[in-house]
Write a structure and sequence with these properties.
204 residues; mainly alpha; 75% helix; globular
Length: 204
């Protein structure tokens, strides 16, 4: 288990993402909302979530190939700041991180925020507000915030269309996993490798 969880960075990242789910559940309990009310684990939700990942993955590949300065800046920030911290992670570790992000962020933004606001603002306004909040939470750059808002809108629409939070959770997690693997495969010096930590990281 220690080898699977890797070094301090990976443990902190996992704790942060899963902490978002705990935060969503705690806030929901305080205000009388169950963020997991519409979470229905099962083959249907997984299958629909996997299918729903395809448009997001296609958008990722398309945007990464566009010669637009704002998009190039996002990629440069990933290459310089994010991907070096993920160097050497195994596919299993990347999958754990992606799953934690999918569960944590969807619990907070879709299960709590969107579902909670829907009763007061209506489903359309709640979708818009939760999507904007999702984008602002990912505001690495203005362009990235806009793209994240679009993705958040899509994930929120999946919840409305299926009535199953499992669908956006799976779609989010699989998209993150695809993105991590893609960027690590195509970024200079960042590779997917054995479950070992970078030399400058603590491994105990």
């Amino acid at each position: 288990m220690t080898a699977l969880l890797g070094d301090r960075f990976l443990r902190v990242a996992l704790a942060f993402e899963l902490g978002l789910a705990a935060l969503g559940l705690a806030i929901g309990r305080a205000v009388g909302i169950d963020p997991w009310l519409d979470l229905h684990p099962g083959l249907r939700g997984f299958a629909l979530g996997a299918i729903a990942t395809i448009p997001m993955a296609a958008l990722l590949l398309y945007c990464d190939r566009l010669p637009i300065r704002a998009l190039r800046r996002i990629r440069q920030l990933l290459d310089d700041l994010i991907l070096p911290m993920l160097r050497g992670r195994s596919p299993t570790q990347l999958a754990l991180l992606a799953f934690a992000a999918g569960l944590g962020e969807e619990t907070l933004f879709r299960g709590l925020l969107q579902a909670g606001l829907a009763g007061r603002l209506g489903p359309t306004a709640a979708l818009a507000v939760s999507s904007l909040a999702f984008g602002l939470a990912h505001a690495v750059t203005p362009t990235y915030a806009a793209i994240a808002s679009l993705i958040g809108f899509y994930l929120g629409w999946l919840l409305l269309a299926t009535g199953d939070l499992m669908v956006p959770v799976v779609a989010h997690a699989l998209y993150d996993l695809i993105a991590l693997i893609y960027f690590l495969r195509t970024s200079p010096g960042a590779t997917i490798g054995p479950a070992n930590a970078p030399p400058d990281e603590e491994t105990t």
